[in-house]
Request: fold
Amino acid sequence: MPLFQKNHLYFMPEAEKILEHLGSLIKANTIFLASNDLKTNKIIKVLNKAEILVQEGSIPFQDSYCSTVVNNETSATVIKDTALHLKTKNMPPTKTIGPSCFVGFPIKLRNGELFGTLCAMDRNLIFTKEELDLIVTVAKFLGYLIDLERDMYVDQVTGLNTKRFLEMYFEALPAKNKKNISIFLINIDRFKFVNTTEAVGDHLLSAIAERLNNISNNKGLVIRLYGDEFLIVHFGLTTNHERSLYAEQLLETIAKPIQMKYQTLNLSARIGISSYNGDEKTNLDTVIQQATFAMDEITGKRSKRYLLCTENIILKKERHMWIEANLINELEENKFEMYYQPQFGLESNNITGFESLIRWNTEKYGFISPAEFIPIAESTGHIIPLGNWIFSTVCKQMSEWNKLYGTNYSIAINISPAQLNHYGQYVDMLDDILIKYGILPEQLHFEITETSFLHLSDQIVPLLEKIKNKGIHIALDDFGTGYSSVLYLRDLPINIIKIDRVFVKELTINERDKKIIKTLIELARSLRIQVVAEGIEDEVTLHHLKSLGCHSAQGYLLGKPMESVAAEKLLTENLKN
Reply:
């Protein structure tokens, strides 16, 4: 079905205002605006004053007065008497209304395309030069206006319709035609890596647009959203199986080689799919958003490059969005709290410190794991205010405990790459906080995972050195899970390694894990690096770690993460012993 007529004035109210204003400036009885494609002349807006000379509607182009106008772009075409003029005397309008005076000027777009004509008629009026000049000026202005409006509805690179057009089209679509609509949101993989120049990018986008148009076969509306994202609104699919087959066709079409001037490129894509069944509570933006949800679930690890949106995906994304939107507000309202998991020295059996762990108990979702909200905070930049709150809260707690229990213990704080960069640049801020709360620098441990180093690359060493030089200890968390773990011992200024629970949990049954841990402990000792074992859940494992010379340990056997009140009880008992 034809979804877009190129010769159609989008903003009819604006055209009507312009005609009314023109009518107030010239004396002609009738002013009208027509669009034509040299086959059909369509009068789309008419202003008649005393007498109805013209009405809206379509007639064959060759039978219209406008056919005498389109080739004259230098001045207004003037026919003083349509009943006597050679080209108009036998035309149907002349036979219908009789003689009249007619003037007109073509409306051209910036690409040279003919849009239509602006015309005026009267029974006896002789148009003045000023009136003819005004008609020419307004016709050219209408051309500029239509160009601007078309820019809003037609993408200039691909020739596809824009989302603005889709919104207008969807709003005008009858309710009975809004059932079984399928939305395919298409994102081109790694487009920025092949988009080396504007010319290359435009060529690729145009080639993809042409392919998508061909495959839609007038059963769908192809939209360029922005950048490398396209949208197809399909009207003929009724089942998820049909949608899946169509998505596979789209992917195959996109994957076909694109010949450039000096090379051949092969592109791939991912597609999120949603559907709309005429539900009045669901609007176009919601359906597109659901397709976005599905597309975001497609990662590089998935072999299938399309995904249909499900209720679970929507709930997951809504939860993600809620966390993103409410994290800072909940932080300001003190909805977060710190828990503390004890660490014990394996030689003394006394508490050597705690790992601080943030907890978030929400009214909407209950407890939300840090493994869920920390990555969201990192991606939004909220990790800095969140990290500052953690840092200040822990320091305040440590200050209170120092007064009660002395300073022979430490508290570890997990630090993200963004926080590490932040604190590395503002070392003086660390000094101020330590002085404010009366904390010894060595009481504070910054725990950083191996993946942090991947994000910070060459920046990591000077940042860690700046922090370590203040006396704060650097602990490498999840040690042993990365490929470069041993190199970190050589290259990084760290004080502590924490052996990951993946090695610890099978220490008593897996001889290889036992040898790995033994080697790591011996290596760390030779480098004067402390070793903390995580995930201790039974006495046998604890005994093995003692025998291997491990310095410290933490885990559920020794103590679960607990509120500060419970941690104080442990410290009190530890002080007595």
Observations:
- The chain has three domains: 12-153, 163-309, 321-576.
- The domain at 321-576 is CATH 3.20.20.450 (TIM Barrel).
- Residues 129-153 form the longest helix (25 residues).
- The longest strand covers residues 351-362.
